[in-house]
Specification:
CATH superfamily: Formyl transferase, N-terminal domain
Bound molecules: glycinamide ribonucleotide
Strand order of the largest sheet: 3-2-1-4-5-6-7
CATH class: Alpha Beta
Radius of gyration: 16 Å
Largest sheet: 7 strands, mixed
Structural class: alpha/beta
Oligomer: single chain
CATH architecture: 3-Layer(aba) Sandwich
């Protein structure tokens, strides 16, 4: 049976798009569900385009009930992928999917992680610090923001003339290039 992936995303979902494209014709795995805390998130449209079911939830359902766990279990989800999802994952969900929840972060963790470190704020901080390199991290999720065990990192050099838009773009390219493959490699290890 194919492995089943659930993607959580709060916004545009360009990473979700790449993952849905990558697994569309895969014999190993499929994206079974896309979830969002944001009813207006473009990722929901992207999922519709792939005819992948979606589920929108609110803060109360996420933090005070087992609704999300029940859905993920009912759909026999093997791996939960956070792709631009900005809420901290609660204990009950972590316990229900031990080592089965991964996240992508647009920086070389442990640098530039933690609450409030997302999107342009990350890249701005990198430029302000005068770093010579930047990159992305894919990691297991734990009870803190951006802190679980690192699975994979990819880097690029920052050129002196690089703007925020440029380093953001370079990071996104790396995310799109690597995230689906890392997911595939992880799933290959599951029985
Ligand atoms: C991605 O760059 C991802 O690394 C980042 O959100 C973006 C979502 O883009 N995640 C975080 O900052 C998590 N702390 P997308 O919606 O186009 O995939």
């Amino acid at each position: 049976m194919k492995k089943r992936i659930a993607i959580f995303a709060s916004g545009s979902g360009s990473n979700a798009q790449k993952i849905m494209e990558y697994f569309k014709y895969s014999s190993l795995a499929e994206v079974a569900l896309v979830l969002s805390n944001n009813p207006d998130a473009y990722v929901l449209q992207r999922a519709d385009n792939f005819e992948i079911p979606t589920h929108v939830f609110d803060r109360q359902a996420f933090y005070e009930t087992d609704e999300i766990i029940d859905i993920l279990k009912r759909l026999e989800i093997d791996l939960v992928v956070l792709a631009g999802f900005l809420w901290l994952v609660p204990q009950n969900l972590l316990k229900a999917f031990p080592n089965k929840i991964i996240n992508i972060h647009p920086a070389l963790l442990p640098k530039y992680g933690g609450k409030g470190m997302y999107g342009d704020r990350v890249h701005k901080a990198v430029l302000e610090a005068g770093d010579e390199e930047h990159g992305i991290t894919i990691h297991f999720v734990n009870e803190n923001f951006d802190e679980g065990e690192v699975i994979y990192q990819a880097k690029f050099k920052i050129e002196s003339e690089d703007s925020l838009e440029i380093i953001k773009f370079k990071g996104q390219q790396l995310e799109h290039q690597h995230f689906p493959k890392i997911i595939e490699n992880l799933l290959k290890k599951y029985n």
